[in-house]
Specification:
The chain is globular. It folds into 4 domains: about 110 residues, Sandwich (Immunoglobulin-like); about 130 residues, no CATH class; about 50 residues; about 130 residues, Glutaredoxin (3-Layer(aba) Sandwich). The strands form 4 sheets. Strands 13-12-11-14-15 form a 5-stranded mixed β-sheet, with helices on one face. Helix 15 links the parallel strand 12 and strand 13. It is of the alpha+beta class. It is built from 16 helices and 15 strands.
Length: about 450
């Protein structure tokens, strides 16, 4: 077992959240948000802090409790302004904000904001989505193999957004600075994403070499845009952190791209910490992860990153083999509710998946074969989807003809099992104790060995 050392003051106090505190809070630091959530259905209803430290641990996140009309109200003390998100909606909150909102999971452009802090959040409603190639709109704007056409597109879109930004009222200097940073990042991301989307349209095959060839006419522009971005303060912008891997790509840098940008020691330590935590969240607290954690911790200089790792490691102790399994309630297509504990007395193998998850779908044949091979034995196979789009899930299982032991649950209800990504598999023994919260996939021979040992 790994024991939790006290978190550093800066990590714990960066955001301080309170629900029903009896202590008198400073009015200028209390943020109040109330309103409604639309089309969230089975989606996680969480106000997620997007700062650098917050993104590593999630301990500053706030769960939003909704009533029968999907309305909520929450308040917390916020020490510093910064970025947040609720589903696909991006927010920027400052100490003292008081907002009445309507947030639509399916379409952030339909959101409404009223009250103190409304202006900046209205501006954020239609910022481009980085994972869609920013101004490329998922590739729809790629209409030729010439990157110069994309440069023109980025110039035009940036000018439009800059004009909008300059007209935002009641915006802090930090917000303006960070949104101008977003303009540079979206410009860079638009160009940098061009080769992959161009390959989807068969203009050329995607490879690092073809990326370099396609982007060479825009090399000078990219270097100009990144020249002054290597500042630690920009780490508080989530889009900036997402671009660090591109800026640090050695193959691109060796070809003359991003050469005026240097990853600072803090940026490198963040990347190292984030990479390790990603491995932990996908593998669990296995021996190799424990060994790796000691190496990483010894290499890190920043105590906040060390504490983030230690905090996360300790939180996984509750998933150790032999620990009592956590119960949760699953829903059938017809609305029936079934607790996991209903299957106590048998070995339980749970498949967490979603219709949009390619690797999950790829495991389907192996999962179905596994069920067939153990048919009639003391083991239950449960298919549990975390789809946010309930209709998509219903259509999928109807098409497949699945009627038995196929369930739906909100990812938020699985917090005890730390389902941070899928596919994930859970193996529980007949006494309702955890065998492994990171069970092998159905396609792996090891899963059969583990099941056989329990039967």
């Amino acid at each position: 077992m790994i024991k939790l050392r006290a978190l550093s003051i800066s990590l714990l106090a960066f955001f301080i959240f309170t629900g029903c505190s009896t202590e008198k809070e400073e009015p200028t630091k209390t943020v109040v948000i109330q309103g409604e959530l639309i089309n969230f259905d089975n989606a996680t209803k969480t106000l997620s802090a997007r700062g650098s430290l917050a993104s590593l641990t999630g301990i500053q996140n706030v769960e939003l409790s909704v009533d029968a009309n999907n309305r909520f109200s929450t308040s917390f003390v916020l020490e510093e302004e910064g970025y947040f998100s609720v589903g696909r909606n991006q927010l920027y909150l400052s100490p003292g904000d008081s907002l009445v909102v309507s947030l639509d999971y399916m379409d952030p452009n339909k959101a409404t904001f009223e009250g103190k802090g409304a202006e900046v959040n209205r501006y954020l409603m239609d910022v481009p989505f980085p994972k869609s190639g920013s101004y490329l709109s998922g590739g729809r704007e790629v209409k030729s193999p010439d990157v110069q056409d994309i440069v023109k597109l980025a110039d035009t879109e940036n000018a439009v957004r800059l004009s909008k930004l300059e007209n935002v009222k009641n915006a802090s200097a930090k917000f303006i600075e960070f949104e101008k940073l977003r303009l540079d990042l979206d410009y860079i991301n638009t160009l940098e994403s061009f080769p992959i989307y161009a390959s989807f349209k068969d203009y050329f095959e995607f490879s690092d070499e073809n990326w370099i060839k396609a982007m060479t006419p825009a090399k000078e522009i990219l270097n100009e845009k990144t020249a002054n971005l290597d500042q630690n303060k920009y780490m508080e912008h989530p889009n900036f952190r997402d671009m660090l891997g591109v800026f640090g790509n050695e193959k691109f840098r060796n070809s003359g791209f991003f050469t005026d940008f240097s990853l600072t020691p803090e940026m490198k330590e963040f990347q190292k910490t984030e990479s390790f935590l990603y491995s932990l969240k996908n593998a669990g607290l296995v021996d190799s992860i424990v060994v790796q954690s000691k190496t990483v911790m010894a290499e890190l200089k920043n105590p906040d990153y060390q504490n983030a790792i230690e905090y996360t490691l300790s939180s996984y102790n509750s998933l150790d083999p032999g620990h009592a399994a956590y119960d949760f309630v699953m829903n059938t297509e017809s609305g029936e509710k079934h607790p996991l504990s209903e299957y106590k007395g048998k070995v339980i193998y749970v498949d967490f998946w979603a219709t949009w998850c390619g690797p999950c779908i790829a495991e389907e044949p192996a999962y179905e074969q596994l069920k067939e091979d153990y048919k009639g034995k003391d083991i239950e196979f449960l298919s549990v989807s975390i789809d946010t789009n309930v209709k998509a899930w219903e259509n999928y299982i109807q098409k497949k003809g699945w009627t038995e032991k196929t369930y739906l649950i909100s990812q938020a209800e699985l917090a005890d099992y730390k389902i941070n990504g899928i596919p994930r598999y859970l193996l529980i023994d007949e006494n309702f104790n955890i065998v492994t919260a990171f069970a092998p996939r159905p396609s792996e021979e090891k899963v059969r060995t583990m099941i056989d040992e329990l039967l």
